UniProtKB/TrEMBL annotation:
Biased composition (Basic and acidic residues): 22-34
Pfam entry (one): SUFBD_core
Name of the protein in its database record: Iron-regulated ABC transporter permease protein SufD
Region (Disordered): 1-34
Amino acid sequence: MAVIDATGRPPAASGAVPRPVRSRDPLDHEVPTGREEAWRFTPLRRLRGLLTGPDADGKVSVTVDAPVGVAVEQLDAGDARIGRVLVPADRVAAFAMARSGGATAVTVPAEASLTEPVTVRLHGEGGVAYGHLIVEVGPFASATVVLDHTGSATYASDVEVHVGHGASLTFVTLQDWDADAVHLGAHAYSVGRDATLRSFTVTLGGELVRLNPTVDYRGPGGDAELNGVFFTDAGQHQEHRLLVTHEPRSCRSRVTYKGALRGQSAHAVWIGDVLIGAEAVDTDTYELNRNLVLTDGARADSVPNLEILTGEVVGAGHASATGRFDDEALFYLQSRGIPPEEARRLVVHGFFAEVIDRIDVPELRERIMTSVSARLGELPA
């Protein structure tokens, strides 16, 4: 299978996007050894047995605050809506689907225009737990949904999001776990004809967080923006592996993830895979990852992949960079009388602001920035 760029030439830094096995049965997925492409950056020993599907002995409580007209249901495991968007691509996602006992479903009716966000709060109370959330936005509706993780747990979860034809959804997921939490999550987005998805993934807490967002288009004219912010502190492992699949024509995708790393053994991983199928003419896609390393001892891995099977695209590209503070910005701020430590804080805030300022929930923006400030502590000169 050939890999080409928009001009028909093989790109120097791109590779074929891996095709995982997709099945609800955990036994259909091999136990990873760590040598597989999908698992080579993940510290398997720190997953606390989630690859083998341990029995649930803990709890993650779920509460939903929703405006009038939004339906909130608890679905049985056999409900046909489960698995309509997400077919598990690894053992953990398959165990989450098999052992969650059903799903929480949030449905925004067709043509509704919500003025207040739907907030789904998940709070870990310790132990091993599994979860499944389904969000469906009806045709020509518009909504904002916030998924907020707090507390402590060893948690495997699946999230299915369907944006109906002509609908618009802003979806914010916040991983603000306690320091000892482990969370592996599969997030699947389905974008309908002429629909718009704006997602924001904010990862701050937890000992280990690994999220796998995927986007599929269900008709032409779909528009998906995937934004991410992560702050990886000492000893934390944060991994975001994205796959955007363009099959219908005339769809657009933009990916922008920014991360900062601080402290010994802080490890951030970003994988951005984009597949443009043979029939996906007039596709417009671009992905960007930037990592700011604040101290020695931190490591960032960034791997963009682009596979194009048609030469008739509007645009397709990617960019990735990892570096330290912008010396020119620091010099500019300090030349105007700002102390060095405060100047470094302002640079970090400005680095994140491009993404965070796009979130249309003011109290959430403030909470994220406050949390980032609290994690900065004293930055070295």
